[in-house]
Design goal:
Layout (H helix, E strand, L loop, with lengths): L19 H27 L3 E7 L16 H16 L5 E5 L9 H10 L4 E8 L13 E4 L3 H14 L3 H32 L4 E5 L15 E8 L3 H8 L1 H21 L3
Parallel strand pairs: 1-2, 1-3, 3-6, 4-5
Antiparallel strand pairs: 4-6
Helix pairs in contact: 2-7, 4-5, 5-7, 6-7
Amino acid sequence: MRTSCERPSRERPSGARPSGLAASLVLASALALVCAPAAAARASAEAPPFVVALDPGHGGSNLGTVVEGGPLEKDVTLALARRLGARLETAPDIRVVICRGKDVLVPIRARSRCAADARADLFLSLHANATPAGVTPGSQRGFELYVLPPDDVEDDATLAALATTGPAGLWASHTIRAAALRSVAAARALDRRLREALGAHLARGVRQSGASLDVLRGTRAPSVLVELGFLDSALDRAILVSAAGQDRVAAALAEAVLDFRGAAPR
């Protein structure tokens, strides 16, 4: 039986039936029940995709963390970005943009422009850590997440307001501040899922200093830099370089993105 959501004919068949207003109310209720799912499906189909920009850290002559006899950070981050992108693309309402799709050197500003040009709803910069100088190599483990500190957010908001006069400038500065708040929410979602996948004992927290965060400036989107583990730790390295470990990390990141997507205002 074909069901139509068009207005019914005004012809009235013979026989007993509700009269006047009662008949109209019955028919309207029936149409609402039939047409509501179709209307919801149309609205879903017309909604813009949730755009995720992925930035595999380093690349080309910028090797990132180098471990003797081990993998290069630039290769680890690219492999993880590809696995994560493949997982996210299985969701019908998500579009993935990878800001470095191969082993090339990409300037910092080009990475943030990649997110801005894509009108990303979320920007993730993926990295692998290394024990700092003065600390025993291989003695540290775990993942940590970074968002822009308040001073950088205010600098960007002020510059945006000055770049465009009037209400447009005020709106641009408001957008930057709002994105900064959502960055914290995204970082917490990522932290929660990584704790579940890798263990709470490896969680080093959400931070606003201690890493080079210029890549998070100018994206115009909620933005998080993720240090996924220490390449100079044999235990972390085993996770980051193995197919099974990369799948586990990519699955956790994908779940966090979906969590954030579900809670984020559009």
